[in-house]
Amino acid sequence: MASRKVLVVANETIGGAALLDRVRELAGEGDTSFVFVVPRNRPKSGGIIYLEAVEDAAKVRVDLARQFLASEGIEAEGEVGDRDPFAAAMDAIAEFQPDAVIVSTKPATVSGWLRRDLVERIRQESGLPVEHVVVDIDREGLPFPETLVVANQTVGEQVLLDRLKAKAQDGPHLFVVLVPQPHGQGSAASEARVRLQETLVSMRESGLVCAGMIGEPDPYDATVNALQSFHVTDIVISTFPETKSGWLRTDLIERVRNASGKPVEHVVAEHAPAAAG
After folding, report:
1. Among 27, 137, 149, 217, which residue's Cβ finds the most Cβ atoms within 10 Å?
2. What H or E segment, with its residue span, contains residue 148?
3. Quick one: CA torsion of 257, 261, 266, 272, rounded to 10 degrees?
4. Residue 248 DSSP SS3
5. Cβ neighbour number for residue 248 with a 10 Å cutoff
6. Over 60: is that where the pLDDT of 184 sits?
7. What is the Cα 119 distance to its own chain's centre?
8. pLDDT of amino acid 138
9. CB environment 210-233: b (16+ within 10 A), e (fewer)
10. Closest alpha carbon to 226 in 179, 161, 158
11. Which residues contact 3 (CB under 8 A, 6 or more apart)?
12. Contacts of 66 (CB under 8 A, 6+ apart)
């Protein structure tokens, strides 16, 4: 069992090069494990706040960090924390009893956490050594590609999986899979989550580092909110052919391309849904 446990408090900066390098450095010293806590975010688009989507976005960060570090042989666990980063940190300290804390933020000019003096408050309240790692994620981006994959009924199609596997051939690559939630909380929503989980299993069995979330029912709002949460390199949107796709009838591809300024690739799944109509 590891003799030292380090708590890492981070949100958007969790995949930043400076933070990953510091985690690798500490792990290289031996007998060190890590716990990541990611405070929840609040979506900035759409008329209704879907609490499940907020929870999922934070969980995606945790899952991606754990999988990526595991691929390098670094032991890590994690959880989604309170929306208030101080409360999230103190809850995690009480639960995991770490020996030290790392707080990762954006630079002082843009960091709300630093304006609230988060680092010093955690240090004073916990009595633990607290290290501050600055990641300029807005300027630097991530040290590897991260693709946002948007799909619903086509999310498990082989043509999509094959395309994602091809994108990951050149080196480390992260995938965030977004499934817009059907209206209502009945069987359609449950089936969407099952499709998502089955797809993540298939992707991981293919060696892909991935995590997924359920988004708002409107695919445009769901995508825009995901772009607020993740610093993605590009976007892949999967639909049925134009004659069968409501997303294409609303010009989703071009709308997302215009709103995001990111490369948007369209993958067409030819098979009609089993329960079409």
Report:
1. 149
2. strand 146-150
3. -50
4. helix
5. 18
6. no
7. 24
8. 82
9. bbbbbbbbbbbbbbbbbbebbebb
10. 179
11. 31, 32
12. 36, 76, 77, 78
